[in-house]
Design a protein that fits this description.
This protein has about 240 residues and is of the alpha/beta class. A six-stranded mixed beta sheet has the order 6-7-8-3-9-10, sandwiched between helices. It has a four-stranded antiparallel beta sheet with strand order 2-1-4-5, with helices on one face. It is globular and about 50 Å long. A hairpin with a 2-residue loop joins strand 4 and strand 5. The protein has a single domain, classed as Rossmann fold (3-Layer(aba) Sandwich), CATH 3.40.50. Bound molecules: adenosine-5'-triphosphate (ATP). The site of adenosine-5'-triphosphate has 11 residues, from strand 2 and helix 1. Belongs to the ABC transporter superfamily. It holds the Pfam family ABC_tran.
Length: about 240
Amino acid sequence: MSAVLSTHGLIARYGDFQALYGVDVELHAGEAVALIGANGAGKSTFLRAVMGLLPVGRDMVRLDGEPVGGTSADRMVKRGVAIVPEGRRLFTGMSVDDNLKVAIDQAARLGAKGGWSLERLHRLFPILKEKAKTPVQSLSGGQQQMVAIGRALLCQPRVLLCDEISLGLAPKVIREIYAALPEIRGAGTAMILVEQDVGLAKEATDRLYCMLEGRVTLSGRSAEVTREAIGEAYFGAGHAVV
Ligand SMILES: Nc1ncnc2c1ncn2[C@@H]1O[C@H](COP(=O)(O)OP(=O)(O)OP(=O)(O)O)[C@@H](O)[C@H]1O
């Protein structure tokens, strides 16, 4: 099966500091893939590099087999890739609806087409309809995360990149958000989830990649990869994840 998105020896730097050392990842249509690893392993950097937010070589990122590395984030959105960034990056001072309308306008401007509308998003996360006129800074962390996911979906992605969508949220809220993922996949969107919670990552995805110090140290089917193997890949040999 050919990959919708793939990276090939992906290298990324912040000035003199090299954060990624030749990362190879594949995402197939309709698939959910987890990217796990300790703090500083390079997971967010990977997403940023794929999204065109860091300079990378053209051949290092491919979309439908076509080299797109270094393409601007706007163009990546146009080509069907959207990101739910670390820290959500919502427009504070603006309502839920106005945040979402920014994405609707962006998609229209870029000519990105797909099946996501405000109505469909409201069915996925009904609280966003209830809170439509509420400034986003008055929402709970979970509700803000739903706005961030909604904003990405309204860009009509075939590929959704999610950076730690469970971070800092209560278990009940995390379950609510993760319960929405199958519908998003069902709508034809493949996803890469950066996730610190290994149990959650294994449950929610088909395959996973573990990173350590800018390299992939383990990959496999999420249901089959053992805790021991993940522990070693996470921290180096001799460790276990509990
Ligand atoms: N803007 C930046 N400038 C310089 N170095 C950075 C920058 N952002 C990240 N790094 C460094 O790059 C490496 C990878 O960071 P990255 O944020 O990608 O890791 P991560 O796996 O996402 O971890 P976390 O869970 O802490 O976000 C780290 O050593 C980090 O300190």
